[in-house]
Amino acid sequence: MDQLSFYSAEANGPELADLAGVLCGRGRIVSFGRTAARLSVTVGEPWRARALVTEFGRRGVQADVSRAEEGLLVRTAFRIDLIRLANAWQCEELPEGFRLTGSALRLWALADGLPAENHYLFAVDEEMPARHEKLAEACTQLGVPARLVGPRHGGPAIRVTGRKRLAALEELLGAPPPAAAAVWPRTAPVKDEVRPEAGSAA
Prior knowledge:
Number of strands: 8
Oligomer: single chain
Radius of gyration: 18 Å
Largest sheet: 4 strands, antiparallel
Strand order of the largest sheet: 1-2-4-3
Number of domains: 1
CATH topology: Endonuclease I-creI
CATH architecture: Roll
Strand content: 15-25%
């Protein structure tokens, strides 16, 4: 998996552009005129809020956490260095030429990732349906084939299925924060089906 290692979150230093991973999910970015922008995302668990504040800080961006009706709101101040990100993500489509990275995928997982049986789900923004299929394609281009699933399968979300794909995803994301270990993608052991021999009692 040398190629995957090259793109993994741990193989490259933190960059401001990684914050786009939050916008792949249910994050929001708003601009103040053409001079500054604010990034925010609402999460359900305190560990997600803490992990995101840490990851934002690694990129030189301070974020605060406050209580909101839907959960915990992680939000930056209006910042000049976020205006470029806001301009790129202002339309309902994915930014032209957008390519997912392991670091951005890690932020997406911290904000909106969840395991489900032998799958891993990345929640997407229900209000931005034009992005959904493109996000699945972006995961595939990164080396983790994925597909869009609807509410019947825990969505709308981008779903990664299968041991090999989950192993690739695990490597791309890097080690989880301690509190996130239980909800990080992992490869469950395969359970061999035991069939009764012919003529034996079922």
